[in-house]
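Worked example 2:
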Amino acid sequence: MNNRERTLAILHYEPCDRIPLVHFGFWDQTLEKWAAQGHLSREETGRYEDGSELDIKITKKLGFDFNWASFLHPNCRLLPAFEEKVIKTFPDKSTHIQDQYGVILLNRPDAVSIPAEIDHLLKDRRSWEEHYKWRYEWTEERIDKEALLQLKNQERSNPYGLYCGSMIGHIRDVVGLENLSYLTVDDPELLDEMIETVADLCYRNVEYVLNIYSDFDFGHFWEDICFKNGPLVSPAFFQQKIGPHYKRITKLLESQGIDIVSLDCDGKIDALVPTWVGNGVNTMFPIEVGTWNASIEPWRQQFGKTVRGVGGMNKTVFAHDRAAIDAEVERLKRLVALGGYIPCPDHRIPPDAEWDLVRYYCDKMRQEMQL
């Protein structure tokens, strides 16, 4: 069997020979560290992108089979994006910069985490209509037609998905969490319009692509609307305002025979899983273990085999030792036995990960995860 066949067999509860070894990419700082240690060349760390030839090369060196984040990626965001520019420079060489979404960020030269948000251009209806709404208009320019043509003329041994966008996570990126929270009360009509505009753009992208090519192995959404204690928006709001837009797109996917639909949301997602499952999303990703010990197991108990999973492997063990990896692989065996589940590091592999331990994990999984 090839990896495409293995993946689809597992997610459809069908027999296969082994679990494919899946990852979710790397931090830039991780690749830089490994290059400094001599595991990669400097050329291999430049311009890294999920699913690229460079990604495939690093994947093979480590012993993984493929990166789950390998999909055709229509542009569901601002077009054109804002010009990134420095607004202010401080004596310690930190800066305020305007990013591609019109958000003002504090950029510290020594920081490797997400920058702090200082201000947002999008605050109200005036700024929405002047700077943003027209940037969410659909055009054919949003589709990589050359990539579509290549898909029509090639055979694949690894699974490949269609990116279907974000219904509210991207809006949160643009307005900020605080402004999003205020909008739900101060101007719900504007927020409704923003959601409708962005969701319709996502739908039209998917519709256009599927009219040309539909042999995708899965559809994939991104949301990132949770944190370590739960959702960043009310589950009732999410069910009422966001759920129907998922349903519209998953029905479109289903009409073309695409019945695996994955969803990337970090944090503790339990309170939103019912909305996703009820509206056609059936594969949770990356199932961050975190401090809350996320796992597919309680969702399987609640929803049965409707819920699949890719993820849930605690990436922090890559910074420990072989004993920690052995224990993690042993924990994963029980989850794999549930069926419909493929282990994957529960986010991008971070800079504290040791090359040799990642290699050891891949070797150990190949030995232990025969089916």
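The radius of gyration is 21 Å. Residues 3-78+122-368 form a domain with the TIM Barrel fold (CATH 3.20.20.210).
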